[in-house]
Amino acid sequence: MKLIFAGASTDDCLLAIREICASRPKIFCPPALNLVVEQLSALSNFETAEIFLREYGINKEDCYSIFRQLISKVLMSKIPEGCHKTIETSYQNYMFYPKLYQLFPEAEFIFFLRDGRDVVASELKSKNELNPEAIQTEEVRDCAIKWLNSIGTGLNGIVEIKSLGASTNIIKYEDLCNPSLNKSIIPSISNSKENIAVDSDLKQHTNQWRTVFNQEHIKVLRDELDEVLEQMGYLKNSPW
After folding, report:
1. pTM, entire model
2. How far is it between the farthest Cα atoms of the chain?
């Protein structure tokens, strides 16, 4: 059974993966299991208390063994017959890639990226659903910085575990939503070479920032995100 841990700076990316996997009977992709993230947080607390635990004959390796068994049981308990891959899609997985790799060195780790402008637009549009015009520039700046921090954590984690020998992949949400591109993306998940249609609602979420933000908001976004978006190639396909 192949185990894949997928994380992202926004849950929209993982919603797309769950939709894709729903049509693949040999892939088990359950709803996000926040229990896994909770267990990883608990493991960090155990490590902090390592000296105390040692007094009771519990060492770090014992802790890792216990948590591996617990998380494995949670993930494997409801796998349908015939599935050969399990994808765990709690978006906060990206915060724990090094810890997950220590627990499951045989797993694959995927980090999903999405244009930061759309991430900020999605969050603020949802927050100000009754009055989108009420979006404040400081809200835009705060969300932009939040996105930068999250992708920094995720990408740094991927780089770290890849240097240790982990199987890793970085995938763009926009590529998942593009039938001409997802042909080359999906095999890494499903071993299928066919194009897989993604719901039209997901496609509509690309470039939505253009309809959400005014020029003042866009200036703030450019100040905060321009360099990173350029490095990721987003400005080539969707310039300001």
Report:
1. 0.82
2. 61
